[in-house]
């Protein structure tokens, strides 16, 4: 037709890559990510986000999403997945009596508030800043996991409530910017104060929920008016990715919790420390 005009819709990414095979591989990859994140959340207490964030970052980069939003999307989506994973893992550990309620009451409010601040501040932190936080802290966590003995600062937690709240605030704030649950930082921190490892892992699963909920709210608010996000995104949270990863991660978290009580995780920790060091290094170089 003479007056016919070509209408071009710009989705902000390369739509030509979304053929049937690519979509199937993407779904399978995200499902495998869910399995790994769920098992690791229960087994090592490191939080599944330490796996989800780099995988989502690479996937989003592969599909040529804007570099300005890929890091934020990976972190926020990981935090959204952590919500059901933490609930599942927390319930499993609570049945075994490994959720320390007094510590949860002491650390919980500070972690909640600091995680909310982290989510809100993400609006003003560039993607390179989030990758820097993930890379540096990830390398430190990898080194800590690879050491034959964990650092021991004291044979008990600090007596001061303010010092405890300060520790919790740092854990909540940094975790929210990394897109991880509480276990990655809280388990080694508690272990350094001679806290029983199984109770540290169990309590950290509950702390992960107190990190993820407010941080997700902050990331949703921060990303509401940002251009270049994938379709069906709520702020910086990719709902399709959450819909794929979260159910799988939720189902496999109890398996990790059971394995934590049946296996010596030393060799698994070494393997994961190696993986994490490579991942953190790549994030720093991205």
Automatic annotation (TrEMBL):
Q: Where in the cell is it found?
A: Cell membrane; Membrane
Instruction: Please indicate which superkingdom the organism of origin belongs to.
Output: Bacteria
Its membrane topology: Multi-pass membrane protein
* Key words, A-Z: Cell membrane, Membrane, Transmembrane, Transmembrane helix
The entry's cellular-component GO terms read: plasma membrane
Which InterPro entries does UniProt cross-reference here? TM_pro_TauE-like
| One matching Pfam family | TauE
Q: Where are the transmembrane segments?
A: 21-44, 56-82, 103-122, 128-147, 167-185, 205-224, 236-255, 267-285
Family per UniProt?
Answer: Belongs to the 4-toluene sulfonate uptake permease (TSUP) (TC 2.A.102) family.
Q: What is this protein called?
A: Probable membrane transporter protein
């Amino acid at each position: 037709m003479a007056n016919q005009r070509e209408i071009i819709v710009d989705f902000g990414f390369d739509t030509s890559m979304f053929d049937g095979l690519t979509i199937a591989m993407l779904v399978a990859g995200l499902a495998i990510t869910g399995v790994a994140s769920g098992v690791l959340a229960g087994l090592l207490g490191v939080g599944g986000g330490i796996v989800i964030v780099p995988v989502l970052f690479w996937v989003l980069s592969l599909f040529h999403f804007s570099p300005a939003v890929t890091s934020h999307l990976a972190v926020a989506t990981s935090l959204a997945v952590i919500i059901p994973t933490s609930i599942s893992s927390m319930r499993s550990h609570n049945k075994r009596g490994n959720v320390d309620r007094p510590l949860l009451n002491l650390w919980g409010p500070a972690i909640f508030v600091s995680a909310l601040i982290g989510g809100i501040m993400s609006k003003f932190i560039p993607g390179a800043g989030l990758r820097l936080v993930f890379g540096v802290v990830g390398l430190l966590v990898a080194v800590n996991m690879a050491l034959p003995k964990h650092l021991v600062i004291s044979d008990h937690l600090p007596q001061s409530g303010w010092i405890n709240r300060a520790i919790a605030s740092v854990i909540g704030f940094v975790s929210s910017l990394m897109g991880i649950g509480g276990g990655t930082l809280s388990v080694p921190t508690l272990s350094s104060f001679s806290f029983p490892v199984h109770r540290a892992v169990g309590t950290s699963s509950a702390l992960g929920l107190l990190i993820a909920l407010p941080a997700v709210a902050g990331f949703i608010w921060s990303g509401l008016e940002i251009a270049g996000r994938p379709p069906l995104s709520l702020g910086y949270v990719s709902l399709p990715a959450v819909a794929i990863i979260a159910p799988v991660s939720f189902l496999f978290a109890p398996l990790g919790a059971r394995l934590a009580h049946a296996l010596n995780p030393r060799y698994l920790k070494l393997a994961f420390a190696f993986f994490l060091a490579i991942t953190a290094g790549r994030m720093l170089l991205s």
